């Protein structure tokens, strides 16, 4: 048996193989993710706010007069992928949304914050995002 096929057998049998595959999958997803590209300034968007943790921009297909997305700058696919270490980040997403709601004049009449998760939740972009929607009364549920 040649050296490379011995190595291949070793890798195939290795318990770290699924971990290596998961890391490669994550790196691949991040390089293709549209919201990662927006946060990094590699895809145009109407950005309203950015800091060290989050970016906020107008939704491309607004569902109401005001429709803003608040995303983490770092790739997190969904709520399912949050860790206890992300609690400050999640807090920042909400305080950024609160400030934007005030700046957009939504404060008094109110607004809706939505986080769709997974196929049944209607999540279409696999990078965590908080929808800030307002400017009109809303029925529940939407769509
Ligand atoms: P969700 O269905 O919860 O995953 O929401 C994804 C949202 O991202 C939708 O409201 C889309 O209109 C919005 N969206 C998709 N691509 C872009 C983009 N390039 N810029 C801004 N918003 C986008
Ligand atoms: Zn991403």
Give an overview of the whole structure.
The protein is α+β, with helices and mostly antiparallel strands and 143 residues long. The protein folds into two domains: 1-32; 46-134, 2-Layer Sandwich (HIT family, subunit A), CATH 3.30.428.10. Helices cover 38% and strands 17% of the residues. The chain contains five helices and five strands, in the order αααβββαβαβ. Strands 1-2-3-5-4 form a five-stranded antiparallel sheet. The longest helix has 17 residues, at 87-103. The protein is elongated. The chain starts with a helix and ends in a 9-residue tail after the last strand. The model has no long low-confidence stretch (mean pLDDT 91). Bound molecules: adenosine monophosphate and zinc ion.
Strand portion, in percent? 15-25%
Order of strands side by side in the largest beta sheet? Answer: 1-2-3-5-4
| The CATH superfamily title of the largest domain | HIT-like
One letter per element, helices H and strands E, the order comes to HHHEEEHEHE
pLDDT averaged residue by residue:
91
Low-pLDDT residue intervals, each spanning 5 or more residues: none
């Amino acid at each position: 048996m040649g050296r490379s096929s011995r190595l291949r057998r070793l890798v195939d049998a290795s318990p770290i193989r699924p971990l290596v595959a998961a890391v490669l999958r994550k790196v691949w997803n991040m390089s293709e993710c549209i919201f990662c590209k927006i946060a990094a300034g590699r895809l145009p968007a109407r950005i309203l706010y950015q800091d060290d943790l989050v970016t906020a921009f107008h939704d491309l297909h607004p569902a109401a007069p005001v429709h803003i997305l608040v995303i983490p700058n770092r790739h997190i696919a969904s709520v399912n992928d949050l860790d206890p270490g992300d609690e400050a980040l999640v807090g920042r997403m909400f305080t950024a949304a609160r400030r934007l709601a005030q700046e957009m004049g939504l404060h008094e009449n109110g607004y809706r914050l939505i986080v769709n998760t997974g196929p049944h939740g209607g999540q279409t972009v696999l990078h965590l995002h908080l929808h800030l929607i307002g400017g009109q009364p809303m029925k529940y549920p939407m769509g």
